[in-house]
Amino acid sequence: MFKNGQGSVEVNPNLCMGCGACATTCPSGAMRYNYPSVSHQGKELKTLASVFTAEAKKINQAMVPSLLLHSLKAGTQMIDGLGRSAHVMPKQFESLPAFVIPYGIEHIASTGLDLWLSSLTYGFAEVVLLLSGDEYPAYRAALEEQANLANSILKAYGFDERIHLILASSADDLATVSKAMGLLRQRGSLGSICTPATVALSNQKRETLEAALEHLQKQAKTPLPEAGVALPKSSLLGGLAINTDACTLCMSCVSGCPEGALLDNPDEPILSFIEKQCVQCGICVQTCPEKALTLAPRLQTVEQRKQKAVFNETQAFHCISCGKPFGAMKMVDLMLTKLGAHGAFAGAAMDRLKMCGDCRVVDMVKKEHE
Length: 370
Hints:
Blueprint: E1 2-3, E2 6-7, H1 21-25, H2 38-58, E3 66-71, H3 72-82, E4 100-105, H4 113-121, E5 126-131, H5 137-156, E6 163-167, H6 174-187, H7 205-218, E7 229-230, E8 238-242, H8 252-256, E9 262-263, E10 270-274, H9 283-287, E11 293-299, H10 302-306, E12 308-313, E13 316-318, E14 325-328, H11 329-339, H12 348-352, H13 357-368
Parallel strand pairs: 3-4, 3-5, 5-6
Antiparallel strand pairs: 1-2, 7-11, 8-11, 9-10, 10-12, 13-14
Helix pairs in contact: 2-4, 4-7
C-alpha cells in the first residue's frame, strides 16, 4: 500500500498460507515468521548440536551432526516412508544416516540465510533442505537462490559448500530422498567448519546474520581481501559504486534510502555510506536522477562494513547575496548550465538561482516595489 508518499506492507490473514517465503527473501527482516521464531528455533538447534556432539564423544565417535530441514507434514511423511521403502532402493540406501538430524519446520520456504549460517556456527557440519515437491515453483527458485548466496559467503571465507538441497518431484518421490541419504551415508560425516558459537539468535534478521558472519570471519580459512569478495546479484549484503563525475550531490539517494545507509551532512555537501545498513534494495539506484549509482553485491569484513565512508564531496555554493552556503557547487553549476538558455531565467531571474531561499524571496519582493 502506498499513499501520500508513505508505503506499508499489509498481510491479509485470510489469504496468507503461512509459508514464510516472504521472510526468507526479505533483505531487511521487516517480514518475519513469528512462530516458531528464529530465536526459538536457534535455542532448539543449539541444544541438538551440543547434545549430539557430547553423546558422540561418550562412545568415541568423531561424528559431527548434519541438519536436515523439512516441512512438518510432507517432509515428515517422506522421512517416515524411507524405512518402509525396501522396494524403492537397495537396503543400504534406506533411512537416515546416524549423523543426520531431521528438524521439522512449518514450511520449508520459511527458513533462510540467517538460520542456515547460524546452524553452522552452532556446530552442524552442513544444512540440508528437503523439498518435497509440493512447493510453489517460485519458492523453490527462492530457496535455490538463497542457498547459492549462502555457499558463496562460505566460499569467501575459504570454506566449502555446506548448504544443500534435495529436490524431490513429489511427496511420493522416495527414490530421490533415499538416494540422497545413501550418498550421505557413503560419504560419511563432515567436520564442522568452526568452533561452536555461544551467542543466541535474534528475531531481527540482520542482527542474527551479522553475528553469524562475525563468528565465521574470526575462524575463516581465507582472510577477506581489502576490496571484499563479489557475491551473487541476489545478495542482501553489499555496497554501492558511485560515478563521482556524474553525481551532483543532490541527495535524492539519501531521501530514498529506507535503511539509513546513505547519509548527508547538514553543514557541507558530503555524501557518506555505511555498508552494514545497506540491504541492496536498489531504491537509491532508481532514485538517482543522474544514474550515478550502481549496486555492488559483495562481502567485506565486519569492521569495514561498520565504518561510515565518505562517498562523494564537493565545495559548497554560497549565496551571492548573503554568502550563506545553500547547495553543492556542482549541482548549482549544472542547474545554471541547463537553465541558462531558457528565456524565463534571463537577467535577474538567473541571479536569483544563485541565491538562497530567503534572499530569493527578498529580491523578488524588492523588484516588485521598484
